[in-house]
Write a structure and sequence with these properties.
14 helices; about 270 residues; single chain; two-stranded antiparallel sheet
Length: about 270
């Protein structure tokens, strides 16, 4: 019976609906807010929220580490908060560049979360979903980055009167490979541009919704859009990616920006 109780206690979810709720009680308490730093940081790098199961794995790993060594875990969480705070104050293309570098560091075990960080390390790989990386530039391309270009391509096609992109499952696989290869063969400037859509897409949607007609038309006139075409959705996104990707990123951020990586600040500059 005792073994079953221990197993239940270890497997039950940690309730962090209240950021001030304790994850660990006692003389060295740990709040949900502090324990969630790795979750918020990986959400920022991955440009999307992790599923509940992965968030719970991180919270349980942090709880275990804190119970084992509060001082070392406190220092580790402070390092994560500092890395997150750095990203949150960088907007636009500089933010895209730094995030892509942080993703590369994470994928290669050189980030603030590494192989020694147990469950959090295993979650990190799934969350980032890296599709390509360049060791010389120390930049990486994630699944969210590729999805951002698909969304951007749909917006471009819509403003040209062609309707939203409609891609089959097979087409999406082709687009993923296409953007992966574009990243592999790109200049540093182009790699940064390819990392400058996905993490900003929520901000793009917000900015587009409140942009004036003049702002929207200014971007349409300046962006290096493909010629109006009746080609398939796959053909359109192919023409877009084969074009001046750096020009697309510069004009979008220039006309709708400055764009932040996240809607809300989750990290303080000094923990």
């Amino acid at each position: 019976m005792l073994a079953l109780l221990v197993l239940f206690a270890c497997s039950s979810d940690i309730d962090c609906a209240d950021p001030a709720a304790p994850v660990v009680d006692g003389p060295e308490p740990l709040t949900c807010s502090a324990a969630s730093a790795p979750i918020h940081y990986l959400d920022l790098l991955a440009a999307r929220s992790m599923p509940k199961g992965d968030r719970q794995l991180i919270l349980k790993h942090v709880r275990s580490a804190w119970r084992s060594d509060p001082a070392a875990t406190r220092a580790w969480l402070a390092e994560i908060r500092a890395a997150g705070a750095e990203l949150e104050v960088l907007w636009g293309l500089p933010g895209a560049e730094r995030r892509a570098t942080r993703v590369w560091e994470a994928a290669n075990g050189r980030g603030v979360i590494d192989e020694d960080d147990g469950g959090t390390w295993s979650v990190q790989s799934r969350a980032l979903a890296v599709w390509s990386e360049d060791e010389g530039d120390k930049l990486a391309l994630t699944e969210a980055d590729i999805e951002g270009w698909i969304l951007y391509g749909s917006l471009c096609r819509e403003v040209q009167g062609g309707g939203v992109l409609r891609l089959s499952v097979a087409d999406r696989v082709t687009v993923y490979r296409m953007i992966q290869e574009r990243f592999d063969d790109a200049t540093r400037e182009e790699r940064i541009a390819l990392a400058a859509m996905g993490p900003y897409w929520r901000a793009v949607k917000d900015a587009w919704a409140v942009a004036t007609y003049e702002q929207q038309q200014g971007w349409i006139a300046a962006a290096p859009l493909p010629p109006p075409m009746t080609a398939t959705s796959l053909g359109y996104i192919g023409a877009l990616i084969d074009g001046r990707v750096a020009g697309h990123a510069e004009q979008l951020h220039g006309h709708l920006g400055p764009l932040p990586l996240t809607r809300e600040r989750r990290f303080e500059v000094t923990p």
